[in-house]
Design goal:
Elements lengths: L1 H6 L7 H25 L14 E6 L2 H12 L2 E5 L3 E6 L2 E7 L8 E2 L5 E2 L3 E3 L3 H13 L3 E2 L11 E5 L5 E5 L4 H15 L2
Parallel strand pairs: 1-4, 7-10
Antiparallel strand pairs: 2-3, 3-4, 5-6, 8-9, 9-10
Length: 189
């Protein structure tokens, strides 16, 4: 693709070329902002921890749980053996680790309320409502849509072992800013 673009032997009005040019322009603007920060002497890596790369989830049956995560959540299987499976889901690695029965990633606060340890994000209320309906149609254990007093709405769902997860209708601003680059660059190969 690089050689093709550099050769100059393409039709600039082609829809694919217009998309590629727009994508390259967006990347150029993004990189220009980083370069400007460096020139101004600002530390572009001011955070010590950049992102969460891996989450470990206890499961009693690695094979059955892997199938559930792949078919219900759209996870992609990277590796599996008798004791663990590595899945790609929501821009991170999820390790399903064979554990004892009744072991979950959930925890209880000082008032005895059970909490989830992870919140997934979707892009807007409509996406949240559609996902909620989809999970119900798959006969997954799903809570009601909730208004928790902050922006957006949420609902919880559970996997086969009772691991509780949250879904929020708002993408975090930083991810939303960077996801434009991810989604466009993934489609141009």
């Amino acid at each position: 693709m690089r050689d093709y673009l550099l050769s100059g032997s393409f039709n600039h009005s082609s829809p694919n070329i217009v998309h590629i040019e727009r994508n390259l322009k967006e990347k150029y603007v993004y990189m220009s902002k980083i370069i400007l920060k460096v020139i101004e002497g600002r530390n572009i890596m001011s955070e010590k921890l950049i992102r969460v790369g891996t989450t470990y989830i206890p499961v009693t049956d690695v094979d059955l749980s892997t199938k559930w995560y792949v078919s219900n959540l759209g996870a992609e299987l990277s590796y599996k053996d008798d004791d663990k499976a590595i899945l790609n889901l929501a821009y991170q690695s999820i390790f399903l680790v064979k554990s004892n029965k009744e072991q979950t990633s959930n925890f209880f606060d000082i008032y005895g309320q059970e909490h989830f340890s992870m919140t997934f994000e979707v892009n807007g209320l409509s996406a949240l409502e559609n996902l909620h309906k989809d999970f119900i149609s798959r006969e997954m254990r799903v809570g009601e849509l909730e208004d928790r007093g902050h922006s957006g709405r949420n609902f919880v769902f559970y996997d086969l072992d009772g691991n509780k997860f949250d879904v929020w209708s708002e993408l975090s601003p930083r991810f939303k800013e960077h996801s434009i680059l991810f989604s466009k660059s993934d489609s141009v190969q």
